[in-house]
Amino acid sequence: MSNIEFKIISYLGRTPDFLDEVKLRDKGDGKIFIEEWNAKDKAKPTDSQLNALETEATKLLNNEKADSKRRKEYLPFEDQLEMIYKDQKNGTTTYKDHCDKVRSDNPKE
Q: What's this model's pTM, rounded to 2 decimal places?
């Protein structure tokens, strides 16, 4: 996702349907803009309203990157279930330790 998408998410307080509700466009100059606004819950934001959301949008973008890395580093569900089973059987904390490491290696803001 681009930064303007995260600004729009911050503005609306939710993720809109970027195919129907909010259509973005790039004319080839690298500047993405709102081509069509069909969201019913709020009026189309001005550029200054979107620019004011830069900090929040950056936070959302960074958290999305952390989530993406976490999804890659967590083991497959079968392995996680096996760790949980063994932890319960043996009184260990292997699963918790694994999750804590993935989270500490990929912190959110």
A: 0.71
